[in-house]
Amino acid sequence: MPAVDVSYTEDGPAGAPVVVLSNSLGATRAMWEPQVPDLAERFRVITYDTRGHGQSPAPGGPYSIDDLVDDVVGLLDRLGVERAHVAGLSLGGMTGIRLAAREPGRVHRLAVLCSSAKADPQSFLDRAAAVRSGGTAPLASTVVSRWLTPAHAAAHPGQVAGLEAMVSGADDEGYAACCEAIAGLDLREDLGRITAPTLVVSALEDPALPPEHQRVIADGIAGSDLLTLTPAAHLANLERTFEVTRALLGHFDAAGGTP
């Protein structure tokens, strides 16, 4: 399938090193809003909507993880970016893993948050079928209940409503095709091919992709660092904003070249 021109936003100094942020299944690039201001003080930050999400096109499926990687490579090419730091959460992390293994020259440093090298295929196939029959809206509250711990969700009802609107706003076919892309991937052999210095972030209370998934990633990527956060569920960057932002800044700053 040809790459699609995904919708994106740029923040920060034009001449600074580039950081690309890739969203979770069901979310949009707006999920990274807590991190963007601090990152943009030192980096040229590019957030984008994965195909089928937000303002990006939603071509008919099937999709593969390589299709999602092709979209990122196409975006970098459009922006004249040869090499970037890449951070992705969940589906975004899977995209980052595959990108770093397949296109090592394009990834300077990698951060993989609350993601997996191989998830349970049947659960994602079942979700794809449910979305095709009834749309994303009926699933929104269940999906978002995995994104935040109950205590955080109870204290932030406005955030919960905004996240549920994100899920409901995803293109039904695009969301389903992304579910099937996750169901079909196995990135475990890719881990050993990754040469980019890698930070893996795990959330102790993540019911969607529990910490054992991140341990597999960290064990498979030579020299990677594993950071476990608690309390935090699947969208750890929202619940542990300070810790995730500090970790990303430290990881990418270690490459040098930042103002």
From TrEMBL:
<keyword id="KW-0378">Hydrolase</keyword>
<dbReference type="InterPro" id="IPR029058">
    <property type="entry name" value="AB_hydrolase_fold"/>
</dbReference>
<protein>
    <submittedName>
        <fullName>3-oxoadipate enol-lactonase</fullName>
    </submittedName>
</protein>
<dbReference type="InterPro" id="IPR050266">
    <property type="entry name" value="AB_hydrolase_sf"/>
</dbReference>
<dbReference type="InterPro" id="IPR026968">
    <property type="entry name" value="PcaD/CatD"/>
</dbReference>
<dbReference type="GO" id="GO:0047570">
    <property type="term" value="F:3-oxoadipate enol-lactonase activity"/>
</dbReference>
<dbReference type="InterPro" id="IPR000073">
    <property type="entry name" value="AB_hydrolase_1"/>
</dbReference>
<dbReference type="Pfam" id="PF00561">
    <property type="entry name" value="Abhydrolase_1"/>
</dbReference>
<feature type="domain" description="AB hydrolase-1">
    <location>
        <begin position="17"/>
        <end position="240"/>
    </location>
</feature>
<dbReference type="GO" id="GO:0042952">
    <property type="term" value="P:beta-ketoadipate pathway"/>
</dbReference>
<dbReference type="GO" id="GO:0016020">
    <property type="term" value="C:membrane"/>
</dbReference>
